[in-house]
């Protein structure tokens, strides 16, 4: 996951002293400019090691209205214009990720967060993978089973198109207000 965060957020610095209780921060030396955040990806601000708890803590952008799954639980989204705006935002985020040769591998309503401004952003890059120069697909069986593209469930290679299919699947769940077996 750390490799994927470095690829997505070029301002993430390695935490060299893991014994230090003080958070390690990116270098802000002379001539260093912070890259502009992508408006369709939840912003990453900082990370530090919590040695007593044996964990890595990440400070991320606060998305005040929760996830698209929360919208499903509140009755779904019946307004096609709103749904189109949400889908367009996720498509922009996926384009950014895919341009960096990454696959998210867990696109689902739970990982698509919203805020009071009506923006939607992709979150949870814990399963993301950067594709190498020699391959445009991956085969590892990871993710949430109910939200996997058919080629992943079948054990085949998968790539960017599977993530687009899962976005369509997520939008249909928003419209129908629940996950049903009609989706399969």
TrEMBL record:
<feature type="domain" description="Protein kinase">
    <location>
        <begin position="1"/>
        <end position="184"/>
    </location>
</feature>
<comment type="similarity">
    <text>Belongs to the protein kinase superfamily. STE Ser/Thr protein kinase family. MAP kinase kinase subfamily.</text>
</comment>
<dbReference type="InterPro" id="IPR011009">
    <property type="entry name" value="Kinase-like_dom_sf"/>
</dbReference>
<dbReference type="InterPro" id="IPR000719">
    <property type="entry name" value="Prot_kinase_dom"/>
</dbReference>
<keyword id="KW-0418">Kinase</keyword>
<keyword id="KW-0547">Nucleotide-binding</keyword>
<dbReference type="Pfam" id="PF00069">
    <property type="entry name" value="Pkinase"/>
</dbReference>
<keyword id="KW-0067">ATP-binding</keyword>
<feature type="compositionally biased region" description="Polar residues">
    <location>
        <begin position="17"/>
        <end position="31"/>
    </location>
</feature>
<feature type="region of interest" description="Disordered">
    <location>
        <begin position="16"/>
        <end position="35"/>
    </location>
</feature>
<dbReference type="InterPro" id="IPR008271">
    <property type="entry name" value="Ser/Thr_kinase_AS"/>
</dbReference>
<protein>
    <recommendedName>
        <fullName>mitogen-activated protein kinase kinase</fullName>
        <ecNumber>2.7.12.2</ecNumber>
    </recommendedName>
</protein>
<dbReference type="GO" id="GO:0004708">
    <property type="term" value="F:MAP kinase kinase activity"/>
</dbReference>
<dbReference type="GO" id="GO:0005524">
    <property type="term" value="F:ATP binding"/>
</dbReference>
<keyword id="KW-0808">Transferase</keyword>
């Amino acid at each position: 996951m750390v490799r994927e965060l470095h690829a997505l957020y070029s301002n993430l610095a390695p935490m060299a002293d893991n014994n230090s209780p003080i958070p390690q921060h990116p270098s802000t030396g002379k001539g260093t400019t912070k890259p502009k955040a992508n408006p369709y990806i939840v912003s990453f601000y900082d990370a530090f090691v919590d040695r007593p708890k044996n964990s890595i803590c990440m400070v991320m952008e606060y998305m005040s209205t929760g996830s698209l799954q929360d919208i499903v639980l509140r009755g779904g989204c019946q307004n096609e214009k709103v749904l189109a705006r949400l889908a367009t935002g996720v498509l922009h985020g996926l384009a950014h990720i895919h341009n960096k040769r990454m696959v998210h591998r867990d696109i689902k309503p739970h990982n698509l967060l919203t805020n009071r401004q009506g923006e939607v952003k992709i979150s949870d890059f814990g399963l993301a993978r950067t594709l190498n120069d020699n391959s445009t697909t991956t085969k590892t069986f990871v993710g949430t089973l109910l939200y996997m593209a058919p080629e992943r469930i079948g054990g085949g290679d998968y790539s960017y198109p599977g993530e687009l299919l899962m976005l369509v699947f997520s939008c249909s769940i928003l419209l129908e207000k629940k996950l049903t077996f009609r989706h399969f």
